[in-house]
Specification:
Length: 214
């Protein structure tokens, strides 16, 4: 993998992590209701689930490419097409009215709720592990940046580690500024903007990767 390829991957991951998904919303909700510390426990659970899911996907993709070397290019085209499909889905995704729930949870002067540390961690893990589409996303996304003529395992390890690091930074950012972000995230208009931004990002990278080769 060249430095240019890694830079492109890093930019893609930063943009993807900056578009809120279930994990981001869960960490944000924990921070609003319970505080920064419990949100970090939820983040740990999300990251563990993410690490397990990405590792499982990488293992499956690696085994597939080793068993069917001729399918390498086909997998890359499938991956780019899947990213475009995700972009269309994100653009058309419905929005939910979360304003009332957030208002009651973050009312000025209201005391913070309490819950066990295990419940925060377990909730984050369950939210992260209950997204089977992440397996397909990783299988579609990672091979786009893999150099076929170089050892795959170190490249996959770097891609997964980078993804986890960027996600962790995103979680810390939203947890530390959750109360300020919540008023935007819960509004239908902002959810629609986020959905459309996500759609443009996914579809844009899908189209670009149809032409790009590391």
């Amino acid at each position: 993998m060249t430095l240019h390829t890694y830079g492109l991957y890093l930019a893609a991951v930063v943009l993807i992590s900056a578009t809120p998904g279930p994990n981001i919303f869960y960490v944000t909700a924990r921070s609003i209701r319970f505080g920064f510390g419990p949100a970090m426990l939820a983040m740990t659970g999300c990251l563990l689930a993410l690490a397990l899911t990405l590792s499982a996907s990488v293992a499956g993709v690696s085994a597939f490419m080793l068993a069917v070397p001729a399918a390498f290019e086909a997998l890359k085209y499938f991956g780019a097409a899947y990213l475009i499909f995700l972009g269309i889905q994100a653009w058309r995704a419905p929005v939910a009215d979360l304003a009332s729930a957030s208002a009651s949870a973050s009312a000025s002067g209201s005391p913070r709720e309490t819950a066990s540390r295990w419940s925060h961690f377990r909730g984050g893990f369950l939210v992260g592990i209950s997204n089977p589409k992440l397996l397909v996303f990783a299988a579609a996304f990672f091979p786009q940046f893999i150099a076929k003529d170089a050892p795959w395992l170190p490249q996959f390890a770097l891609l997964v580690a980078t993804f986890l690091a960027v996600e962790a930074c995103a979680y810390v950012t939203v947890a530390s500024s959750a109360r300020g972000l919540a008023r935007y995230l819960v509004q239908a208009a902002w959810q629609r903007r986020i959905n459309r931004l996500s759609g443009v990002i996914f579809a844009g990278f899908g189209c670009a990767l149809l032409r790009y080769r590391p």
